[in-house]
C-alpha cells in the first residue's frame, strides 16, 4: 500500500464555521453550517483553517493568505536544490515526531554514501530539550532509525541563517515560517516535494500527534519515501559539484 493510499483525511475543522451557529442556535442555522462545509472544497476549508490559526503570527489577513498560498503552491513544484547544500534542517511543529525521524532517516542514507552534509531538525513551537514522542520512539526502529536520544530545539534566526536547506513538513508550518522569516524563502522546501508520485499542491506530511502508533507508522512511510527522494537529489548535487 502506498503512502497516498494510507494518508489520513485532512482536518476540516474551521472555528468560524464550527461556531457559526453556536451551541444554542436554532436547528435551521446548524443545518446551514453543515451545508456550507459540504459545499466548500475540503482543500479550501483546510486553507481557511490555516489562515485563521496564523492570526497570532500576523494580524494582516493579506499576508496570511499570501503565505498560505505560497506554501500551498510550492508543495506541488518539482524541487530545485541550491548547489552544494551542506546544512539541511527539517522543521515541523514541536520537533518531537516528524522532523526528528526525518533527520535520522536522512543521516542514515547520507552515511551510506560518506556524505559530509550536516542534518538537524527543529520545531516552530518546540520546547528546547524535550525528547521525542513515545510513539515516534516506538515506531522509528521499524524503519531502521532511532530517535531515543533526540532533544528538541526551536527554530531561531541563527539556525535559519546557518542553513542551506530548510525542509518543512506541512502547509501551516511552512506558511508560518514564511511570515516569520520571509528573507529565507528561497531556502524553504516542502518535504512532500521530494515524492515523485505523491507531490501536489497542498499536499504535505500530516501531523501524527493527534493519532496513535498506526498513524505514526503511516507518517513514517511517507517520510521514508520523501527522504529517499531528497537524499538522491543531495547526492546528485554533490556528484555534479565534484565533477566540475
**Percent helix range:** 40-55%
CATH superfamily of the largest domain: Response regulator
| Number of self-contained structural domains | 2
**Overall strand count:** 4
Biggest sheet record: 4 strands, parallel
Query: Order of strands in the sheet with the most strands?
Result: 2-1-3-4
Strand content: 5-15%
Provide the gyration radius in Å. Answer: 19 Å
In the CATH hierarchy, the third-tier topology of the largest domain is known as Rossmann fold
Helix and strand composition category:
alpha/beta
CATH class descriptor of the largest domain? Alpha Beta
Anisotropy-based shape? globular
Quaternary structure? single chain
User: Mean pLDDT score, rounded?
Assistant: 86
User: Can you name the CATH architecture of the largest domain?
Assistant: 3-Layer(aba) Sandwich
Distance between the termini: 41 Å
Q: Stretches where pLDDT falls below 50 for ≥5 residues?
A: 1-5, 12-25
| Number of separate helices | 10
List the helices and strands and how they pair.
Elements: H1 3-6, H2 15-18, H3 27-39, H4 42-53, H5 61-74, E1 87-92, H6 98-112, E2 118-123, H7 134-139, H8 157-161, E3 165-168, H9 171-180, E4 188-190, H10 213-243
Parallel strand pairs: 1-2, 1-3, 3-4
Helix pairs in contact: 4-5, 5-9, 6-10
Quick gist of this model?
The protein has 244 residues and is an alpha/beta fold.
Report on the architecture of this protein.
There is one protein chain. This protein has helices spanning 3-6, 15-18, 27-39, 42-53, 61-74, 98-112, 134-139, 157-161, 171-180, 213-243, and strands at residues 87-92, 118-123, 165-168, 188-190. It is α/β, with parallel strands linked by helices. It folds into 2 domains: 11-74, no CATH class; 87-243, Rossmann fold (3-Layer(aba) Sandwich). Helix 5 packs across helix 9. The longest helix has 31 residues, at 213-243.
Amino acid at each position: 500500500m502506498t503512502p497516498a493510499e494510507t494518508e489520513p483525511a485532512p482536518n476540516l475543522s474551521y472555528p468560524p464555521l464550527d461556531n457559526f451557529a453556536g451551541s444554542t442556535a436554532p436547528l435551521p442555522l446548524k443545518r446551514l453550517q453543515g451545508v456550507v462545509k459540504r459545499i466548500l472544497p475540503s482543500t479550501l476549508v483546510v486553507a481557511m483553517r490555516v489562515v485563521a490559526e496564523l492570526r497570532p503570527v500576523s494580524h494582516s489577513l493579506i499576508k496570511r493568505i499570501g503565505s498560505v498560498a505560497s506554501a500551498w503552491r510550492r508543495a506541488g513544484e518539482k524541487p530545485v536544490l541550491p548547489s552544494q547544500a551542506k546544512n539541511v534542517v527539517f522543521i515541523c511543529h514541536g520537533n518531537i515526531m516528524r522532523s526528528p525521524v526525518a533527520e535520522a532517516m536522512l543521516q542514515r542514507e547520507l552515511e551510506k554514501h560518506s556524505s559530509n552534509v550536516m542534518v538537524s531538525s527543529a520545531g516552530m513551537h518546540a520546547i528546547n530539550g524535550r525528547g521525542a514522542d513515545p510513539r515516534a520512539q516506538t515506531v522509528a526502529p521499524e524503519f531502521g532509525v532511532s530517535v531515543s536520544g533526540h532533544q528538541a530545539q526551536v527554530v531561531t534566526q541563527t539556525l535559519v541563517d546557518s542553513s542551506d536547506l530548510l525542509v518543512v513538513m506541512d502547509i501551516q508550518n511552512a506558511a508560518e515560517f514564511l511570515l516569520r522569516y520571509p528573507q529565507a524563502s528561497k531556502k524553504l522546501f516542502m518535504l512532500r516535494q521530494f515524492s515523485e508520485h505523491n507531490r501536489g499542491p497542498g499536499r504535505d506530511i500530516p501531523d501524527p500527534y493527534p493519532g496513535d502508533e498506526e498513524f505514526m507508522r503511516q507518517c513514517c512511510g511517507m517520510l521514508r519515501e520523501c527522504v529517499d527522494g531528497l537524499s538522491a537529489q543531495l547526492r546528485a548535487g554533490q556528484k555534479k559539484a565534484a565533477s566540475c
